Description:
By secondary structure, the chain is an alpha/beta fold. It contains 13 helices and eleven strands. About 40% of the residues lie in helices and about 15% in strands.
Amino acid sequence: MSETVQAPSIIPVLSVVLPVRDALPYLEDAIRSIVNQTWTDFEFVICDDGSTDGSGVVIDAWAARDPRIRVCRRSASFGPADSANWAASEAKAPRVARMDADDIAHPDRLRAQMQALDNHPDTVLVGTLWEGIDHQGKRVRARDRASLSSSTFRAPFAHGSILFLKKAFDAAGGYRQTCVFWEDLDLYRRLACQGRLMILPDALYRHRFARTSTRLVSQQRQVEDAVDRMNRCRDACHAGHDYESLLLEPAPAKIDPRVFWAMGALRLWAGLSPAGIAHMLRRARLAGSGDAMVLIAVVLSSLWPPATRTAQRLALFFRNSFAATAWQDGVACEWGWSAAQAARADPSNVHPLQAGKFGNDRPPVDMPPPG
């Protein structure tokens, strides 16, 4: 059962939802970054999902100081997808902004996203580019503007940076438990059938590569199997196929080496070494030269983590240098992986009012020509 306190009496124009589960020591920074936004007209719904580390004390202290904060509590957690759905269900406003408990929002984030939605009425979600910080708050990874031109089914924006229409979220069915650990990407695919997914090319969000990340502290095999399923579903989506049947398949004994690349990158930016080589060799599938090359790259990065971090920063620097003139600060653009691609991958998910609205000739929005 959930307990709600300090519920506002007036329906706000925006709800900011913050799911919390044992979020110390970063929780105060996350809350402060929302309370200090330049856009001030919102309710701040903080959902304490059975925390036992003292997070509740921090939440109550902030709620006592700011009347916009509404606290919701329950005694047990049922995983990240369920927690995200619970937080969204508590939102009273027609627009909902998500925030993650170990990240930091730029002071102008909400204002810029609200303006983007106002400027583009057929948009259902606005995300922002992000930069990575470590456990001390030091920037370790710059924003990746080159990702804006990619048409792959890989979100350029952080999950915690999204602001969406609640009616579109509800129509899409929210987050799905069958896609745990990649429930955000699956949601975007279904939201894309409702309208545009826009991105602000500014780094208005600081994503923390925390060692307390759900993917890092959860059961390792469960996370690896989930990421492997995500890769198979992404491949199906790129090929124009529906991936619903893949969600019901049992996890294979051997998994795609790309899993270890993704998990290794997460650990690498968090200042940790990638998973043990012996474990990777036991679990990795080696079905061809491509798999072997990925596994070799992962093994090499495991042997020299600092050198790998430096190499990735240099690669990102050059990628951003080439992309610098293609995107204008403060001007929203559409995610390269388009709503039309999502509709082709699964026509049954197209909302009746949106069917046929988006076609291959849909022009980019607010995208200045390359300089």
